[in-house]
Design the sequence.
């Protein structure tokens, strides 16, 4: 496959679910800048002019089939699939309704399953890279995020299983597990109200690196995982959290 130094993803075809979200947009723009033909597959349309938009509901099997038919007729292959669509629900399990539980699993887990399932036939033609979105919350828990934590743990396990099954077909599968990335999802987590700015600042200070991540930080890792230089990387959970989960909180008396 052709790749030049200045545009290493030239001639690659990429699909990014949740490609119109905070992290997804940065990924789409970075992959585009590196030369790929990029499709943002999302419920909402909010894309860079150089990124193509395809309406896609990751919870719907027919939507996945339609998306792949479009990709087949236009390119006959996919080289990079990023499963970034996701939602968060801030509740304990007692407060979570069954409908809410099913909905977050439908988007975060079933969505990753369905889009990947139907992309594989187009990916094994040339080999490729699937990048799922886990979270540091798949390893350790934040209060009141039970269902979210459970979905991210499931994505981590699914990532490893997919990597085992599809490695022999030259399809690498990894998950990025971000910490606090400054997007609308993070702002939602801190809420509105007088205390939210204080929480926002306090949470920043517990990071060894003393800042939140940016969508561009995440896009840098996606770019590497998508490209040939990550050719030996598969089945791994790449934590990107400014050192947050590397430390125990110190009590200095
Ligand atoms: N922002 C963070 O701090 C953070 C931390 C850890 C993990 N993550 C994960 O990163 C991914 C991206 O998060 P983000 O911060 O960009 O969130 P975001 O809310 O900004 O974007 C999520 C995108 O997913 C799309 N989406 C939701 N339901 C969909 C559906 N049914 N079909 C298709 N698209 C759908 C939304 O329209 C939106 O564009 C998510 O999987 C999230 O769980 C984010």
Sequence:
């Amino acid at each position: 496959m052709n790749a030049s130094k200045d545009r290493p993803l030239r001639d690659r075809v990429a699909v990014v679910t949740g490609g119109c979200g905070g992290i997804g947009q940065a990924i789409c723009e970075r992959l585009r800048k590196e030369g790929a033909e990029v499709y943002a597959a999302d419920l909402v349309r909010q894309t860079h002019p150089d990124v193509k938009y395809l309406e896609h509901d990751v919870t719907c099997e027919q939507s996945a089939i339609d998306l792949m038919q479009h990709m087949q007729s236009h390119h006959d292959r996919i080289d990079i699939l990023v499963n970034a669509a996701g939602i968060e629900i801030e509740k304990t399990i007692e407060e979570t309704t069954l409908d809410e539980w099913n909905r977050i699993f439908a988007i975060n887990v079933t969505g990753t399953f369905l889009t990947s399932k139907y992309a594989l036939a187009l990916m094994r033609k040339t080999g490729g890279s699937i990048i799922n979105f886990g979270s540091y919350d798949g390893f350790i828990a934040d209060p009141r995020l039970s269902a979210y934590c459970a979905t991210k743990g499931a994505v981590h396990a699914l990532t490893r299983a997919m990597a085992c099954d599809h490695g022999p077909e030259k399809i690498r599968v990894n998950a990025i597990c971000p910490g606090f990335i400054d997007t609308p999802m993070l702002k939602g987590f801190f809420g509105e109200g007088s205390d939210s700015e204080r929480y926002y600042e306090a949470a920043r200070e517990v990071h060894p690196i003393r800042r939140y991540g940016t969508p561009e930080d995440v896009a840098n890792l996606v770019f590497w995982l998508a490209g040939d230089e990550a050719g030996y990387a598969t089945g791994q959970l790449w934590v990107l959290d400014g050192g947050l989960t590397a430390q125990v909180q110190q009590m200095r008396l």
Remarks:
- The chain has one domain: 13-181+217-239.
- The chain is about 40% helix and 15% strand.
